[in-house]
TrEMBL record:
Source organism, top-level taxon: Bacteria
Pfam family, one: Iso_dh
Cofactor(s) required for function per UniProt: Mn(2+); Mg(2+)
Family matches, as InterPro entries: ICDH/IPMDH, IsoCit/isopropylmalate_DH_CS, IsoPropMal-DH-like_dom, TTC_DH
Organism in which the protein naturally occurs: Polynucleobacter yangtzensis
Catalytic activity from the UniProt record: (R)-malate + NAD(+) = pyruvate + CO2 + NADH
Domain called Isopropylmalate dehydrogenase-like: residue spans: 5-349
Protein name: D-malate dehydrogenase (decarboxylating)
Keyword tags: Manganese, Metal-binding, NAD, Oxidoreductase
PANTHER family documented for this protein: D-MALATE DEHYDROGENASE [DECARBOXYLATING]
Record-listed E.C. numbers: 1.1.1.83
Broad enzyme group: oxidoreductase
C-alpha cells in the first residue's frame, strides 16, 4: 500500500469549507482503492491564526511541509485583514519558499456547464495556461518612501531573470508537446514593456528550437483577451508572465462557466519540494459559511495532485466522477445557476467514485 502524506491548509473563507470536502472525496477514493491511502496533516494558518499570533503562518512553517508529498490549499483572504498581508504571509510564502515556479491552470468546459460564449461548441475550448509563478511583476521588489507626504512614491519592480524565464518557457513547451495539439502561444507585451518582455520573446525563440514538433505563436496580452473570447479554438497551451497569466486565467475560468470550477497546481517540476494544489478562486466573502461554495475547483485540483503524484488512473477516475456530476444540472451550485448545496455535490461525487 502507498500512503501519501498531504499537508491540508484550508486557509480562510470558503477555503475552510471546500478543503474538508476534498479530504472526504480523497478518502472515499482510497476506500474504493485500498492500495492508496492519504494521511492528512492539518494546518490552521490564515486569518484566524493572524488574529491570535500576528502572522499568517509560523516563520518556520515551511519545515513541517517539506517532508509532505503534496500540499492541498484552500484560499487566503480575510475581510478584516489587508489582502497583501494575507497573500504574501501565506500563499506566496509557500509558493516562493518551495520555488513552485510553474503555475498550471487547465480550462475546459465540463459536461453540463454553460459557457457565456455564444458560438463555442464543446471541445473548442481546451486550454492550459502556464503562469510564471516566482518572479516578474510579483517579485515583491519595490518600496515606498515619504509615506503620507505629498511627495510620496511607490514602486513595484518587475524582475525577469534569464533562468526564471527559460525554465518556465521550457516547462510550457514540454507541456504543449505532451498534448494532442502540440501548440503553444507565448503571451507578451514587448511593444510597451521594452526590456523584460523583449528578453522574454528572445528566450522563447531560443527554447522553441529544442521543440521542433511544437508549433507556436506570439500574442500581445491585450489582444489575447479578445482572441480567447472570439477564437477560443485557436488556443491550446499558453505561457505568460505572473501578472498577465493571473488576469488571463480568471477570464479563462469565467469563460469555462465559473470561477468555482477552475483548478490550479503550483509545481516545482524538479520535485525538490512539495507542490501545492488549490482552486483558483479566493475566500468568497459573499457566500462563506453558507454551504453554497462550489467544491468542483478543489476536486479538480485534487485530480491534478493525483496526476502529479503519478496516480494517473485514480486521477482519471475522479475526473470522470466530476464530469458525471457536472453533467447533471440538479447538482449545480448557485454560481452555475443551480440550487444544489456544496454537500450535495460532494456526496454525488463520492457516490460516483464508490460505484
Ligand atoms: P473570490 O474568488 O473570492 O470571489 C469572486 C466571486 O466568485 C464571488 O462572487 C464569489 O462568491 C464567487 N466564487 C468564488 N469561488 C466560488 C465557489 N467555489 N463557488 C461559488 N462561487 C464562488 O475573489 P475576490 O472576491 O476577488 O477575493 C476575495 C478574497 O479572496 C480576497 O481577500 C482575495 O485576496 C482572496 N483571494 C485569494 C486567492 C487565493 O488564495 N488563491 C485567490 C483570489 C482571491
Ligand atoms: Mn488571481
Amino acid at each position: 500500500m502507498k500512503t501519501y502524506k498531504i499537508a491540508s491548509i484550508p486557509g480562510d473563507g470558503i477555503g475552510k469549507e471546500v478543503i474538508p470536502e476534498c479530504e472526504k472525496v480523497l478518502n472515499a477514493l482510497s476506500k474504493k482503492h485500498p492500495e492508496v491511502a492519504f494521511q492528512f496533516e492539518h494546518f490552521d494558518w490564515g486569518g484566524d491564526y493572524y488574529r491570535k499570533y500576528g502572522i499568517m503562518m509560523p516563520d518556520d512553517g515551511l519545515e513541517p511541509l517539506r517532508s509532505k508529498d503534496a500540499i492541498l490549499f484552500g484560499s487566503a483572504g480575510d475581510p478584516k485583514i489587508p489582502d497583501h498581508i494575507t497573500l504574501w504571509g501565506l500563499r506566496l510564502k509557500i509558493c516562493q519558499g518551495f520555488d513552485q515556479y510553474a503555475n498550471v491552470r487547465p480550462t475546459r468546459i465540463l459536461p453540463g456547464i454553460e459557457t457565456p460564449l455564444r458560438n463555442c461548441k464543446p471541445g473548442q475550448l481546451d486550454w492550459v495556461i502556464v503562469r510564471e509563478n516566482s518572479e516578474g511583476e510579483y517579485s515583491g521588489v519595490g518600496g515606498r518612501a515619504h509615506q503620507g507626504h505629498p511627495i510620496e512614491v511607490a514602486s513595484d519592480m518587475s524582475i525577469m531573470t534569464r533562468v526564471g524565464v527559460e525554465r518556465v518557457q521550457r516547462f510550457a513547451f514540454k507541456l504543449a508537446q505532451s498534448r494532442p495539439r502540440k501548440h503553444l502561444t507565448v503571451i507578451t507585451k514587448s511593444n510597451a514593456q521594452r526590456h523584460g518582455m523583449v528578453m522574454w520573446d528572445e528566450i522563447a525563440n531560443i527554447v522553441a528550437k529544442d521543440f521542433p514538433d511544437v508549433t507556436w505563436d506570439k500574442e500581445l496580452v491585450d489582444a489575447a483577451t479578445a482572441r480567447m473570447v472570439n477564437r477560443p479554438e485557436s488556443l491550446d497551451t499558453i505561457v505568460a508572465t505572473n501578472l498577465h497569466a493571473d488576469v488571463l486565467s480568471d477570464l479563462a475560468a469565467a469563460l469555462a462557466g465559473s470561477l468555482g470550477i477552475a483548478p490550479t497546481a503550483n509545481l516545482d517540476p524538479e520535485r525538490r519540494y512539495p507542490s501545492m494544489f488549490e482552486p483558483i478562486h479566493g475566500s468568497a466573502f459573499d457566500i462563506m459559511g453558507k454551504g453554497l461554495a462550489n467544491p468542483i475547483g478543489t476536486f479538480w485540483s485534487a485530480v491534478m495532485m493525483l496526476d502529479f503524484l503519478g496516480e494517473k488512473a485514480l486521477g482519471a477516475k475522479l475526473m470522470a466522477a466530476i464530469e458525471k456530476v457536472t453533467a447533471n444540472p440538479k447538482l449545480h451550485t448557485r454560481d452555475l445557476g443551480g440550487t444544489a448545496m456544496m454537500s450535495d455535490v460532494t456526496n454525488a461525487v463520492i457516490e460516483e467514485i464508490s460505484k
